[in-house]
Amino acid sequence: MEQVDTRKSPISGEAALAVARDVDEIWVARGKTAVHVDLKTSRPPRAELLALLLGPTGALRAPTLRVGRTLLVGFNAEAYTKTLK
Question: 2 or 71: which carries more pLDDT confidence?
Fold first, then answer.
């Protein structure tokens, strides 16, 4: 398992897209809800995907966790529960 402290080495732009390259689904926390993107059925445009992955600083949102072929961006208890069963 690889762990990166993004406070010391921020991940942005193409590097953030690379994090999502080999996943089938992405769960993105938005406040108390989570947005689910199923990349097996459709791939959003680059700008839309970046908007989901990047925070206000322009770097990958934290926490970001990859579990198998699922990417969790931000913290949402429901998404974590579904993914980490």
Answer: 71
The CA-atom distances, in angstroms, between 22 and each of 7, 31, 81 are 24, 26, 22
Q: How confident is the model at residue 51 (pLDDT cuts 50, 70, 90)?
A: very high
Tokens of 85: 């069963």
Listed in sequence order, the residues at least 6 apart from 82 whose beta carbon sits closer than 8 Å to its beta carbon are: 27
pTM value? 0.88
Query: CA-CA distances (angstroms) from residue 52 to 1, 2, 45, 76, 85?
Result: 24, 22, 11, 14, 24
For the four alpha carbons of 5, 74, 48 and 24, in that order, the dihedral sign comes to positive
Query: Rounded to whole angstroms, how far apart are CA atoms 28 and 25?
Result: 10
Residue labelled with tokens 């989901």 = 52
